[in-house]
Amino acid sequence: MIDLLLNPFQFEFFRNGTLAAVLTGGLCGLIGVYIVLRGMSYIGHGLSHAIFGGAVLSFVMGWNFYLGAGLWGFAAALLINQTVRRTKINADAAIGVITTASFATGVAIISRYRHFTRSFDAALFGNILGVTTQDVAIVAGVAILVSGLIFVLYKPLLFTTFDSQVAKVYGVQTEWVDTLFALALAAALIASMQILGVTLIAAALVIPAITARLTTDSFNQMIFISTLLGALTGFFGMILSFYLDISSGAMIVLLQAGLFVFALVITSLQKRAARRLIHTHV
Amino acid sequence: MKPIVELENVTFGYGAMPILEHVSMHLHPGQFAALVGPSGAGKTTLLKLVLGILTPNRGQIRIDGKARNGYTSAAISYVPQLESVDWNFPVTVEQVVLMGLTRSSGIWPWPSRDDAERLAAILDQLEIRHLAKRHIRDLSGGQQQRAFLARALITQPDLVVLDEPTAGIDVRTAENILHMLGHLSQNGITILLTTHDLNAAAAHVPWVICLRNGIVAQGAPEEVFTVENLNKTYDGDMLVIRQDGMLFVQQKPHPHGYHDLLPNPVPGEVPTQKPA
Questions:
Q1: Which stretches in chain A have pLDDT values below 50?
Q2: Interface confidence (ipTM) of the complex
Q3: Is the pTM of this model over 0.90?
Q4: How far apart are CA B224 and CA B218, in angstroms?
Q5: For testing the chain A interface, which of B86, B101, B102, B138 should be mutated: the one with the most A CBs within 10 Å?
């Protein structure tokens, strides 16, 4: 059994890929807690698509991928925030307009410059085989920075997530908190893009967090469980993808979805048992 | 004594639709005041103007002598309507109360020793210390109100603004909450709240402000709760009864009440007497 687990690690690409998958899984699990509790699940989906536009543009312009895509994603997140704050447009509509326009920009550029040597399949669906040591270092750096930011902003972020308007009355600089959170989200998405791909990032952000929410009523436990689930599914998803010869991003998300269904069934059965116990005692 | 809240000729509206017009009022330190009026009269809007969430189109708002523009100081606390709270959010009572100290506490995620002492003291004061580790959804309406009041009081505020603190809780609990607020005002904290419960306001709040897109009347309940003022405020046929030093306010029953619509309210039984 141990051999079965350790066997794939003799390959460098697998070691890099697994380390990156564990780090991005944990990172998405951590940041996903705030995404889910803010009712922003759609922003993860939208921003990951928006970043695709930035990734294509940065390639065409010869910019550094991480810098170009990161700035683009951050700008898109800020634009969504400002549109919602300053106009009558709701968040879902603002996300829909800004992120799909950004995605369309990427598609338009690809269709215009057909002589691309670089495959954007990796950006769309993830390519764990192409993860280099430098990529792992960048993912690790982003994970440390984002975790540090969330650690330092723990209290204002919790209050702003719970009730932004009331937090502002109590003197919390909610605009700054939202801006820094948008920056952290954009960074996490860029770091995850190579591993999970644009189309699967949203699931990796949302599924561990809602699974954790099903199992606990404690905010701190939710953060811990969601981060752990993200990291563990990253690890075991990689092992399974190796043996089953399935795309790593898809395997990780399928594993997370399976755990979510399992948690849903268990909590439903527990609730039913508790109700039956109450009826028996009444 | 210098007023803590001053509104001078304040007008606010969205577009061409005015919600509040020419509102002038003052609240002094330790004053306990209630805003009453029908739904849509501008009560919550007035609270949001005082809190700095909204900015007036015209007029001036001063808090503790300083013009208000945007951010409020930590000396003001706010208890929102319970129905606006996300009860599924995974937080305990102590986490909610500690939110009040977010601005002043350090960067560590856990409370400092000083914060923990203040938390224990405020939970003791409001008699909810045994509920500290409970999820906020698992509390009764009165306990929930106390938890959010604790968050307001842990900041040691000069002014506490409460939106409908008596909504959705039973009469006895509502009376307890108002009694507690009265006690706080005696300790120098200014209290401004909104309520639909005119009788509770008459019994517990020494200063009431009748609002209907502007101030209709303000003063002691005995002076303000007159048939004329209340009819102007509620655009209805109000009844004011004074008995044994107490004041009761009631809307006159509709001329075609349920007795006319349902002459036999309990099937199989004949009503013995129709109310006068």
A1: none
A2: 0.84
A3: no
A4: 6
A5: B102
